[in-house]
Amino acid sequence: MKSPVLNVLSNKYCEQCAVYKSKEHIAVRNETIALNSKHFPEGSIRLLFVAESPPMAFAQNKTSYFYANGPMKYGKLSYRMMSVLFRQKFDRKEDFLREFMKEFYLVDMVKCPIDKLDSKNEKEDAIKHCAKYLNEELHSLKFQKVVFVGKDSFGIAKSFLDLKFNYDVISLPFGSDKNVKNFENGLENVMKSIRPNSQ
């Protein structure tokens, strides 16, 4: 099976979206989808993560996406996941990703970057249209549980998603020490729910 994220390249739900008119956003989308699909797990997915979107910074810095190789950067999502999921430190992203794809997979709720959009309406529009792709992904992937990372975007997307499976929502690990701790504690609890004997 190929990663269902590749279906986004058909643009079938994109043409009415306000972000679709931006060539730079679409370029980031296409490159990050290609990276994402290369890390599609061969076996079953124990835990599926749904992040908000790829960062606009990827347009200038090709190491800034979750699935991009490079050094592990302090404070990034992969860095925060590392100690909870694997109880060890990785210096290089490719080593982390090699382990990650054995049991885990991450998709983006919105396929184009929305972190730098000025308009709240544009952001909500992008979430609404991309929810159609995400619904298809959620119902074609086989996973034990799904975790939505980021409560604000999930709050918007929830009414457009068909959520008939086991899921959790945890806060993003950015912005404050409290957010980081909430993220780590939330992910610890999720791991205990799928691995009852994990310490």
Number of contiguous helices:
6
How many strand units?
4
How far is the N terminus from the C terminus?
33 Å
Do you know the CATH architecture? 3-Layer(aba) Sandwich
What structural class results from the helix and strand content?
alpha/beta
Global geometry: globular
What is the element string, with H for helices and E for strands? HEHHEHEHEH
Provide a concise account of the structure shown.
Helix 2 crosses helix 3 (93-103) and helix 2 (77-86) crosses helix 6. With 199 residues, the chain is of the alpha/beta class.
Descriptive terms for the model:
alpha/beta; globular; 199 residues
How does this structure look, described?
42% of the residues lie in helices and 12% in strands. Helix 2 crosses helix 3 and helix 2 crosses helix 6. It is of the alpha/beta class. Strands 2-1-3-4 form a four-stranded parallel sheet. The chain has one domain: Uracil-DNA Glycosylase, subunit E. It has six helices and four strands, in the order H-E-H-H-E-H-E-H-E-H.
SSE blueprint and pairings:
Layout: H1 23-38, E1 45-51, H2 77-86, H3 93-103, E2 104-108, H4 120-140, E3 143-149, H5 151-157, E4 167-170, H6 177-194
Parallel strand pairs: 1-2, 1-3, 3-4
Helix pairs in contact: 2-3, 2-6
